[in-house]
Amino acid sequence: MSDVYEASADARSSAFLRSLSEYQALYERSLQDPQELWGELAKQFHWQTPSTGPFMQSNLNPALGRVSVTCMAGATTNVCYNLLDHNISENRLGDKVAIYWEGNCLGDSRKLTYQQLLNDTCRMSNVLTNQGVKKGDRVAVYMPMIPELVITLLACSRIGAVHSVVFAGFSADSLAERIMDAQCCLLVTADGFFRGEKMINLKQIADDALDRCREREKGSKGFSEPKCIVVRHLGVAPGGPGVPNRPYTPAKRPCPNLQTPWQDGRDLWWHEVMHKAHEEAPPVWCDSEDPLFILYTSGSTGKPKGMVHTQAGYLLHTAVSHRLVFDLRPSDVYWCTADIGWITGHSYLVYGPLANGATCLLFEGIPTYPEVDRFWQIIDKYQVTLFYTAPTAIRSLMKHGNEPVLRHSRHSLRVLGSVGEPINPEAWHWYHRVIGGGRCPIVDTYWQTETGGFLLAPMPFATPLKPGSATFPFFGVVPAILNEHGEEMKGEAEGYLVFKQAWPGMARTIYGDHRRYEETYFQKFPGFYFTGDGCRRDSDGYYWVTGRVDDLLNMSGHLLSTAEVEAALGAHPAVVEAATVSCPHSLKGQTLYCFVTLQAGHTFSRTLVAELRQKVREKIGPIATPDYIQNAPALPKTRSGKIMRRILRKIASGDPDFGDVTTLADPCVPSALFADRCRTT
Ligand code: 6R9
């Protein structure tokens, strides 16, 4: 065990868990008697009616009947009530800061206490109710990283409505697809926002999406165009600058020129409806298994999957894992840099931390604006103690050297976290040594949109760390490594990562398509939850997630489906066929490498490449823009016509060792493509 990091005795002394054996004992307990451990942890929350059944019940084998998972059956609660009212009344957190908001521009900031967050959330709950939103209805949310986003999620939860957040970097097409899939009755958005220097007219994109919904659903029964509530974030109040927009302040850098398209009768200004709404709203009690939210994640067929998360299990899992894995203290200032449009933002910026009564930082901007030291400057400004980010962000900052970091003290930092993809050792060491000054443990947290919360993660002061390994399972979580035949491999092994039993925070279904849920996660290895990831277990029992084994790729920590990108490229009239694979990238981890076969009469040119890139941005969003597009007069196909992506991956990564090509219809294709490949360094 050469590269192993252990916390100092001093740092351990005050931690929740102080040694590996303490972790192991608690882990064993969590497996032997989940009821005892989780039941104890559940006591910190308010249950309007207690659970009547065992802590969890599940069937993960489609052959034995419908796949189903329930947690705390029979209990009723309200997640928003637990995060706000309960923390205020039981834990006296009314005056504690819940959210520090740091805007894109320097000097643009706000803060909300738990009491203020409750007041605004109640108003918004009344706004939603006044618009006819009821328990179980779906509300689409397409917003920048501003407090109104958190308020909207909590308000939905308060009235039992199901939010469906769509990342504000997704295109109008993607938004429209998600609004229609979940049949949302309302959309909450904002006029616009800045990312660094770049202004995004969000309402324009939202309007385009709503137009698309209308076009596609023309004539179909039961679809009525969603209403739209718009936060004025960038625009100037009617009547000109200086007219108060209270209680909601727009960004410090208003844009008098921002054109916000508007449709009377459908669109409502947030500040106007909020102003008229009452500040008190009783919570609507929900069943432990009622849906809390839907969040879409890429699917290997190209169609995104609306993962459905429910109430009790999700609340418990996110709260407990956040508290233990970050060793949370009442005085901590916790910063998760993920966007709320992703699961990390849902579980570890909103639900887990607020359930724990933590003070959270919500940052609207990007790490490199106005300068590459913005993260470190913010850490000092708010005296951040717990910092959670992604390897891709670390790598992109690492390339600017140590000087921008060393301009700031960062002495407040206590625990660092990593999520989204495997962290490479160079980035791990830089994060540990330079950012954390060698003092702070790094919790490498492995989990997914589907899992709701951490599945593999260290206890920061108890688990000896190995750079690049998410170490051991969280409480109540049982990993296994299977071979191609579905046989479990013990000891040192490499294969498919699965989980042997249900855990509280797991997604219960895919919205509107339970069969797809069963097929995607439980069909390949009946009785196990299949992650889609490969994994290795070393001789010390540490888990090392090696990456996706399906047709998904992880670009800058975002999961993308190669099929979806291929479909976007195929929508260009010049393209007959497209094949997309991932290839390694020094900053993004993985990137997209696309092969396109053109229609006769079209020539491959720079203009065409630019058009193809644009097509992908339009259909999916800027996060999916491919780095490499190669002309492929022919693709390597089997005689039955299947594209051999294995060979394309080799070409993309510059490896001429194609392996067995005898099954190809034309064995010359790989070398021809290889000779013409794009430079990928
Ligand atoms: C939370 C999140 C899930 C996929 C997952 C895996 C990769 C996430 C990781 C990791 C290695 C880690 N992944 N965390 N790989 N080490 N610590 O990212 O959810 O967007 O659904 O992505 O991300 O491949 O399957 P999501």
TrEMBL record:
It catalyses: propanoate + ATP + CoA = propanoyl-CoA + AMP + diphosphate; acetate + ATP + CoA = acetyl-CoA + AMP + diphosphate. One of its GO terms (molecular function) is propionate-CoA ligase activity. The keyword Ligase applies. Residues 91-508 form the AMP-dependent synthetase/ligase domain. NCBIfam families: PRK00174.1. Belongs to the ATP-dependent AMP-binding enzyme family. Residues 23-82 form the Acetyl-coenzyme A synthetase N-terminal domain. Residues 564-642 form the AMP-binding enzyme C-terminal domain. One of its GO terms (biological process) is lipid metabolic process. Its EC number is 6.2.1.1, 6.2.1.17. It comes from the Eukaryota. Coiled coil: none annotated. InterPro entries: ACAS_N, AMP-bd_C, AMP-bd_C_sf, AMP-binding_CS, AMP-dep_synth/lig_dom, ANL_N_sf. Keywords: ATP-binding, Ligase, Lipid metabolism, Nucleotide-binding. This is Propionate--CoA ligase.
